[in-house]
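BUG: 3D viewer hangs when loading the predicted structure for this chain

Environment: internal workstation, default settings.
Expected: structure renders.
Actual: progress bar stalls at 90%.

Input used:
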Amino acid sequence: MVRISIPTLPKAPLVPPSGLSVLPIPQAAAHLASFLEKGKGKTVMLTGAGVSVDSGIRAYRGEKGTYSNPNYKPILFHELVEDSDRGDMFRRRYWARSFLGYPPVRDAQPNPTHIYIAALQHLGLAPKLITQNVDNLHRKAYSLLSPSYKESNILELHGTLAKVHCLKHRHEQKRDSYQEEIARMNPVWDEEAKEAERTGRRPRTNPDGDVELHGVDYRSFSVPPCRICEQEKVDPSMVKPNVVFFGETITPRVRDESLNLIAEASSLLILGTSLATYSAFRLVKSAIELNKPVLMITTGPTRADPFVEKGMEKMDRVAGDVLGKYLDEAVKTSTGQEVEDVKRYLHTGVVKRPPEVEGPRAEG
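Structure tokens produced before the viewer hung:
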């Protein structure tokens, strides 16, 4: 039996804070300006859960790099797809919890950091973005600045919760349609979801849209099969969200595309992530091996900290603060429609902290 564990990080930073971490914000923003200028519009950005905390979506890890919810036990990929009575119960448990957990993620709005990142793309300073997040917030932010934005400029490394597909035939549909099907088949759960929305007393939601429920019997919960399979009169297949589960690997297409983006980039800007997952860490490792300049702006220890000895620069601070100051200065001396678009939305965005998050903005 293969043992699969949730990626963890050291309890303490592997390297002491650098001089970049203690620079006043204006000087930190000036350093970012120099980094992007040298990138000449070919800098690629890599983001993680930390950038979505201010949108009310809890990060996996806190400011010290420790797992924020050590008692949380997500469904692993092999459990979800197991063809047995046990697997059937895992699917009931996953979809019941995700049915309640998806609406807060679906309804979340971009925060200022998402707007800043979209601005860097829209201005052509760092047009390509790789994100580990599955919350769709980067796309929402970019579409505000540019309704005709290129979807190909954002690569979702771990997929998106906004879509689902069946495993046997790869029939894809919007998540909202599947949510409606779940609600129709589970009226009691649907009423619970509506009550939670009315009162605001939603259970704790994790970044993958799963929630914590205790003492619940999932046997009465019905998981809809793929309706497209039924319409096409083929064997119905189980449905999963378009996200990479723990224990599942990213597709070869996404892996190759992400590595190609790094190979073609002039530099790599990392924002709000501890890089605990190998699929993201591998990209930084590749950039270092290719001698690309790398700047990381995030809080707490990360898996990539040893790369500081190989030339990676790290600012141990909240990314949004630096990005916002940099863009304030950048748009002062620039002109054009893109600049006007950015000015219109620059300091907008909704800040809605997760109810149980206190202190500094965690960037996991």
